[in-house]
Amino acid sequence: MNWVAPAKINLFLRVLRKRTDGYHDVFSLMQKITLYDELIFSPLPQGIVLHCPDADLPTDDHNLVVRAAKAVFSFCRYNGGMEITLIKKIPMTAGLGGGSSDAATTLMALNKICSLKLKKNDLIKIGSKIGADVPFFIFGNTALASGIGDKLKHLRNL
Predict the structure, then answer these.
(1) What is the DSSP string of 92-143?
(2) Does the active-site annotation cover 60?
(3) 94-141 pLDDT, tens per residue?
(4) Among 2, 50, 72, 113, which residue carries the largest CB count within 10 Å?
(5) pTM of the prediction?
(6) Is 61 one of the annotated active-site residues of the chain?
(7) Out of 37, 102, 133, 150, which one is annotated catalytic?
């Protein structure tokens, strides 16, 4: 099953302060864009296997996709597994949220594919533990973000 993980841009970003936990409080307007990574999911009896062809990315717990899959399976006490292929098109370290989008897409895809029946708020809660931008990609297309990017207010698409 193929899924797309869109990039995002910050139409404006104000970094307010550095927090003691290492994150920064921000105020930003975020918008998803049409640039995207592709993820292909194939069920396995157990385990999580990630492939990243043509990309020099880790395929273990250092990858947000693996961390997202483990987090949602653990949250639901799901015993099955998944083979995931990540085809990168979003440039890495470009500030476009590629890794966070890949993690969010993984959460949403596994919720549907594995019939986990989690609500959007559950996915956002799980995602917030993986990365600051992950909740945005679950939340919607356009949002005003505050906190570490986890406090989101829906806005009409621009």
Answers:
(1) TTSSS-HHHHHHHHHHHHHHHHTT----HHHHHHHHHTT-TTHHHHHH-SEE
(2) no
(3) 899 999 999 999 999 999 999 999 999 999 999 999 998 999 999 989
(4) 72
(5) 0.94
(6) no
(7) 133
